[in-house]
Amino acid sequence: MKVHNFKKSLQWEYWPSYLFYVPVVPYAFYLALKSRSFGFFSAVNPSIEGSGNGLESKFKTIELVPDTYKPKSMFVAKNQKLEEILNNLKQKNIEFPLIIKPDIGFRGLLVKKINTEIELQNYLKKYNTINLIIQEFISYKNECGIFYHRIPNEAKGKITSITLKKFLAVTGDGTSNLSTLIKNNERATNYLDLVLALNTDKLKSIPKKGEKIILTVIGNHSKGTEFINGNHLITKKLEKTLDTINSSINGWYYGRIDVKFKNFEELLQGKNLKILEINGVIAEPTHIYDASKGTYYKALKSIKEHWKIIYKIGVKNKQLNNGNFTNLKYLINVYFKYKKYLKTVKKLAAN
Q1: Residue 325 to residues 104, 233, 317, 334: CA-CA distances in angstroms?
Q2: Could you read off the pLDDT of 52-106 as tens digits, one per residue?
Q3: Residues 6 or more apart whose Cβ sits within 8 Å of residue 175
C-alpha cells in the first residue's frame, strides 16, 4: 500500500488543489492592482451570488437555467421533515433513483445517487444539518464539462475547455468477483475505500466475461471519474449552441457547465442534454487533469489564462454598470465563511 501511495503522489492529477492555485497568486495579485480592486472577479456573473465564488446556492443557480436544459430540482432546507420532503418530491414529479448533494458543494463531497426512500431517509438522518438539493437522475450515458465565456456586449462567446468524463469501471473476466476486480484495477485502488463502500452489496458477485461494471455514477474526480481532455471537440457549431444557451441565462458570462447528453452529435445541436450545474469564477477548466495530454506547467498556464478572462469580463461589467467590485473586507469574510462551511461538510463526510 505504501508503494501504491508513493506512485499516486507522483501523479500531479491527484495533487492537492492549492498546488494549482498558489503559484498563480502573484498573477491574480497583479490583476487586482491593475483593476484597483481585490474583488474584480465579483462583477463577472451578476446573476450568481458572488459570481460563483464557491458559496453560491446550487439550487438558485440551476434555477437560472431554462427548463429545457435543466433536470427537475428541489431545495431541501436543513432539518426539513422527511414527510414534507417526500410530498415535495411527488409535487415535483421526481422519482427514484435521484441525486442528492449539498446546496453549497465542494469537489463532490456528499454527492450520492439515492435508489430508494429508505436510502433517502438514512442520508437525511446523517446530513440534513445543512441545506441540500435533490435532482432527478439523468440516465444519459455521456457527461462532460464545458468551459464557456462571453465578453459583455459581444454577441458570441468562446469555449476554452471540454472535459469528457469516463466513469470508473471494471470489466469482468468470468471468474473473479467484483471485489477482486476492483482491487486489481490500478485506478480503482486510488479510491478503494469509496468504491468498496459504494458497491458493498455486489462485491461477491462474479461479472460475466467482458461485462462492464460502472462503479460510480457521479461525474466528479473525487469519485474516481477520469477527466479526459476533449479540446479537440471545440467547434464553431458547439460554440453557437453554447451562445444560444448563454443568451437564455441572464447575467452569466463565465464558467463551466456540467452536462449530461445522449451523444455528441445531438449535443452539437443543443438536443437531449441536461445541465447539471453551472460553476462560476471558482470553476476549473478540468481538462488540465488529463495528465496524458498535458503537464503540470500547462495546467498552471491554463488557470492563469482563465484568470485573465475573469479580469476582462469583470472590468467590462463594471464599466457597463452590470456589476460591482467587492472590497477586501468582504473577501476576507467570504474566505472565513467558506473555510468554516468546508470544515462542516468534511466533518459530515468523515462520519
Answers
A1: 22, 35, 10, 14
A2: 998 999 999 999 999 999 999 999 999 999 999 999 999 999 999 999 999 998 7
A3: 206
pTM of the model: 0.90
Say if residue 152 is preceded by a cis peptide, omega within 30 of 0.
no
pLDDT at 198: 84
Going from N- to C-terminal start, the domains of the chain cover 19-57+65-71+139-166+226-350, 72-137, 169-215
CATH class of 72-137: alpha beta
Residue-wise DSSP of 206-228 = -PPTT-EEE------GGGTPEEE
CA dihedral 340→341→344→346, nearest 10 degrees, is -110
User: CA 174, 178, 179: angle at the middle one, nearest 5?
Assistant: 135
Question: What's the pLDDT at 184?
Answer: 93
Residue found under cell 480592486: 37
The closest of 200, 197, 173 to 184, measured between CA atoms, is: 173
Please state the length of the chain.
Answer: 351
Q: Which residue has the cell 411527488?
A: 90
Q: Which amino acid is at 52?
A: G
